[in-house]
Write a structure and sequence with these properties.
Residues 41-60 are annotated as: Disordered. Residues 44-60 have a biased composition (Basic and acidic residues). The chain has one helix spanning 42-48; strands at residues 5-6, 13-14, 20-25, 28-33, 39-40. The chain is built from one helix and five strands, in the order E-E-E-E-E-H. Strands 3-4-5 form a three-stranded antiparallel sheet, covered by helices on one side. Strands 1-2 form a two-stranded antiparallel ribbon. It is globular, with a radius of gyration of 11 Å. It is mainly beta.
């Protein structure tokens, strides 16, 4: 089972790229919960961005 991160804002279980919102900045990327836009730590966002949820819509 893939590792998950629980959002501090809404309590959603974030486990894949599909659960995140990414914003590019001058210094890199900032990650946010895809449901409530609460900031997610960069290390967690980067790790989860390499996961997919396994749904039929995954393109990887």
């Amino acid at each position: 089972m893939p590792a998950r991160y629980t959002c501090d804002g809404c309590g959603a279980a974030l486990g894949a790229l599909e659960d995140l919102h990414r914003e590019s900045t001058q210094t890199g990327r900032s990650w946010y919960c895809g449901y409530c836009r609460t900031p997610v730590p960069d290390s967690i966002g980067e790790r989860l961005s390499h996961r997919s949820d396994g749904s039929p819509t995954d393109r990887r």
